[in-house]
Specification:
globular, eight-stranded parallel β-sheet, alpha/beta, 11 helices, binds manganese (II) ion, Arginase, Chain A, about 15% strand
Length: about 325
């Protein structure tokens, strides 16, 4: 293990109890930039794309707090991400709470610097529109594959008289901008009542694989994971995890809950099932603390970030020839 790797370990339990100190993601050091990192954890405290119940702007702060419960090793797959990779908290993306387009520019610039430094981005939103500027920063070499966990397809065209940028539209924009390859995209957990029976037409016509929640339970978890691996293949792949994909029993603190979702354990197993893919970044979005009085949704968000960190660290380690 290199000295640099040692330098970004969470503090030893003997030195500092987990409830003490300033809250950072997984108790990692807070650093100014991603230059010395393999994986950069960050927050995007912004919910200006929210169409219904706002609050996800408060997600990063609460996820950081809940993430102090995370330890070092994932016992299910044996991955110890802080031993494989240099990981730290690079803080929050700059945002403008009263200007959507300015925020998209600011967030894209923040992630472009992380990627230029050679680090893999793993972030906490924020509403789901934050994934669009992240993909703009990430997909400069061509469209990436996408594993998208969500109750919603987020491929609407416009809201409120032609407005194109909301948390219901990021993946339509990402297809139009050639940031994701729709034929290397899988959406898992889709459900909820519709405004219009043609709501999934765009996703299906573009060739996205849409796994509605009924099909998820009919096929079973292992078959859905195998399908996800087949769809994204060997190419670079991003993972976007909207906590409303989970049943609201597990993650009530979100703006657009839909009953009848998958469980936290199923989500953990699906993320672990992505190990070995060429994963180039990930996010956890739509944790909305104002609707999360128990704090459990923030803990769920932190835990999903840790599961994603483990498979990202494994992928980054293997890309380095480890
Ligand atoms: Mn979403
Ligand atoms: Mn959603």
């Amino acid at each position: 293990m290199s000295e640099e790797t040692d330098s970004v370990q969470p503090p030893n339990l003997d030195a500092l109890p987990r409830f003490a100190g300033i809250a950072t993601f997984m108790r990692l050091p807070l650093v100014d930039d991603a230059d010395a990192l393999d994986i950069a954890l960050s927050g995007v405290p912004w919910d200006g794309g929210t169409t219904n119940r706002p609050g996800a702007r408060h997600g990063p702060r609460e996820i950081r707090n809940a993430s102090s419960l995370i330890r070092r090793i994932n016992p299910a797959n044996g991955i110890a991400p802080f031993a494989l990779c240099r990981v730290a908290d690079v803080g929050d993306a700059p945002v403008n709470p009263v200007d959507v387009m300015d925020s998209l520019t600011r967030v894209q610039g923040f992630f472009a610097r992380i990627i230029a430094a050679g680090a893999v981005p793993l972030s906490a939103g924020g509403d789901h529109l934050v994934t669009l500027p992240i993909l703009r920063a990430l997909a400069t070499g061509g469209p990436v594959g996408l594993v998208h966990f969500d109750a919603h397809s987020d491929t609407w065209d416009t809201y409120f008289g032609g407005y194109r940028y909301t948390h219901g539209t990021p993946f339509r924009r990402a297809v139009e901008e050639h940031l994701i390859d729709p034929r290397r995209t899988i959406q898992i957990g889709i459900r909820g009542s519709l405004y219009d029976e043609g709501e999934l037409d765009f996703a299906l016509e573009q060739g996205m694989r849409v796994v509605r929640i009924e099909e998820f339970y009919d096929l079973g978890l292992d078959a859905v994971v195998a399908e996800a691996r087949r769809i994204v293949g060997d190419g670079p792949t991003y993972v976007s995890f909207d906590v409303d994909g989970l049943d609201p029993v597990y993650a009530p603190g979100t703006g657009t809950p839909e009953v009848g979702g998958f469980t936290t354990h199923e989500a953990q197993r699906m993320i672990r099932g992505l190990a070995g893919l060429d994963l180039v970044g990930a996010d956890v979005v739509e944790v909305a603390p104002p609707f999360d009085p128990s704090g459990n949704t923030a803990l769920v968000g932190a835990t999903m970030m840790f599961e994603l960190l483990c498979v990202l660290a494994d992928a980054a380690h293997r890309r380095r020839g480890g």
